[in-house]
Amino acid sequence: MEVAVLGDKGFDNKPSIEAKALRINLNPYIYGTFAEIGAGQEVARHFFRVGGASGTIAKTISAYDKNFSDTIYGEEADGRYVTETRLGKMLDHEMTLLEARIPKEQRSNKMFFTLANTVATIDFAKKFMGHGWMGIRFQVTPEEPYSNIILHVRFHQTEARLQQEALGIMGLNLVYGAFYKHSNPNKFLRYLYDHIDQDAIEIDTINFSGPRFEHVDNRLISLQLIRNGMTDAVMFDSNGNNILPARILYKKNILAFRGSFRPVTLTNSDMFEKAHEIFTREENVDLEKTEVIFEITLSNLRAEGEIDEKDFMDRAKLLCSLGYTVMISNFKEYYRLVDYFSNYTKNQVALAMGVNNFVEIFDEHYYQDLSGGILEAFGKMFYNNLKVYLYPMCDEVTGEIVNSNNLKLHPRMKDFYKFFKYNGKVVDIFDYEPSYLSIFSREILQQIKNGESGWEEKLPKGIADMIKKEQMFGYTKSSPKITAE
User: Fold this and answer.
1) For labelling, which of 12, 126, 253, 334 has a CA lying 20 to 30 Å from the CA of 52?
2) What are phi and psi of 233, to 5 degrees?
3) Is residue 238 part of a domain?
4) Residue 150: predicted pLDDT
5) For residues 116 and 94, is the Cβ–Cβ distance under 8 A?
6) Which domain holds residue 195?
7) Residue 8's pLDDT is what?
8) Is 450 domain-assigned?
C-alpha cells in the first residue's frame, strides 16, 4: 500500500516553491537526509525556511573541506570531487547511515530518501562556468527497494549566487518530483525547471533506475532532453546507458560519423572501418585516447515530421548492438558539431562523410544566420585539428566515381575549397568496397516496409536478424511480396 498521496490535489499545476517544500515537510511518512558539497546547502534551506522540517529531515551535511569530505566518503582515484562516482558514494554512505540509525520498528511506515549533490560553481576569473552532479535515492512505499534519479547540470549564469539559487530550486523540484511525479519521467523532466529560467541551467545527462523505473529506457529520456531544449547534445553507450559527454570527450581524439542509420548499412560499416584505419595512422593520434562517435541529428529524426520514438529506438538499438557510442545532437550544421567538440578537446578531430554531405557544407544558405556567413562557419569548423575523411560516391547518370578531385561546387566556392584541400584538411578514402556505393539506406527502408526480399545482405552481420526479430522499421512477419518480372 502506498503511503504517500501521489497526486496534486489542492495544488496548482505549478505549485510554488514554498508549497512544494511544505507538502514534503507535512507528509509524515517522508523522511531523509541532505548531503551537499560545493555550493552550500542550497536544496535543504528551502525545506527549513517553510517550517515543519523536523519530521522530514533527519540530517543535513555539507562536507565542504576536501580532507573532511575524503574522511567521510573516501578518496577518489582521480583526485576529483565533482564526479558521478563521488555522488554515488555520497548516496550510498548517507542511506546506509540513515538505515543504521533508525531502528526497523520505527521506520515500518517511513519512506526514506537521500538527496546529494557535488557542485563547482563559477570561479572568480569567470573562465570556468561551473557544473555539478545531483541525485536522489528514494522509495515511494515503505520497505520497497530504492529507486534513483541521477543528473548532471551545467551552469550558464555568471554569478555564483544565481547558480546556487538555480541549483537549490532544481534540487527542490527533484525531491518533489521523485515522490509526486515519478510515474511519468517525460513530464518529470519539465517539472525540474519549475520556477527556473531554462537558459540558467542545462541538464546534459540524466538516468533513472530502480523498481519505479523498470519500464524506462534512458535513451528515450536523453531524446527528451534534446526535444525540450534542455541541452544540445546527449550520449549513450553500447549498453544503452546515458553518459556524460564531457567525460567521454575530454582531451580525446574524436572520430565522428553522422548519418540517419535507418538502418545502418554495409556502406556505413565500410566508411567507419576505412576512416578508422586512416585516423589511427595519423601521427598525433593515440588509440588509447580516441573516441568514436556515431551521431544522429534532431533534424534527421524529424525528417518525416514529428519524431517517432520507436523509429529512434530502432536506430539506437542497432547502433548499440554493434558496440558504438551514440550521440544525439541539435547541431544541424557540421561547424556547430565541431565547435561543440572543441569545448572538450584540442586533439585531433575527424569527420567521416560521403561526398553528397560534404558538398552541402559549401552551400552558403546554411549560414545566413551567422553575421560572418560561411567564412565564420568554416573558421569555427577548421580552426582546430579537424580533418574530413571523404567517402566517394558513384554518379548515377555517368557511373563516374566522385571524390575530392572531381566533385562539383558552386564557382564561388572552388578557390575556397582548394584552400582546405591543399592544406591537408580533406582526405579521400580510396580502399573502399565499390559494390557498397550502390547501397542506400532509404531504398532498404522502403524494401523493408514493402515486405520485399534481398535487403538483408546489404546490412552488417546480425542486423537483418535483429530487424526481423524486433519488427523494426515497419517490418512484419508476413511473407515477402512477389512481383512480376
Assistant:
1) 12
2) -155, 140
3) no
4) 98
5) yes
6) 17-216
7) 44
8) no
345: domain CATH number is 3.40.50.620
| DSSP assigned state of 55 | G
Confirm whether 236 is domain-assigned: no
Q: What is the 3-state secondary structure (H, E, C) of 413-447?
A: HHHHHHHHHCCCCEEECCCCCHHHHHCCHHHHHHH
Closest to 294 measured CA to CA, from 251, 248, 231, 339 = 248
Strand pairing class (201-209; 233-236): unpaired
Sign of CA dihedral 348, 349, 352, 353: negative
Grid cell of 22 as nine digits: 511544505
Q: What tens digit of pLDDT does each residue of 227-284 get?
A: 999 999 999 999 888 999 999 999 999 999 999 999 999 999 999 999 999 999 999 8
Q: Is residue 284 part of a domain?
A: yes
Answer yes or no: pTM beyond 0.85. Answer: yes
Regions in the chain scoring below 70 on pLDDT: 1-12, 384, 478-485
Given this model, what pLDDT does residue 476 score?
Answer: 87
- Same domain for 171 and 258, yes or no, is no
Supply the angle between the helices 334-342 and 373-381 in degrees, to the nearest 10: 40
**DSSP single-letter state for residue 113:** E
Dist CA 256 CA 253 (whole Å)? 10
pLDDT in the model for residue 478: 63
Q: Which pLDDT value is given to residue 164?
A: 95
Smallest Cα–Cα separation from 363: which of 396, 408, 405?
A: 408
With contact defined as beta carbons under 8 Å apart, do 3 and 31 qualify? no
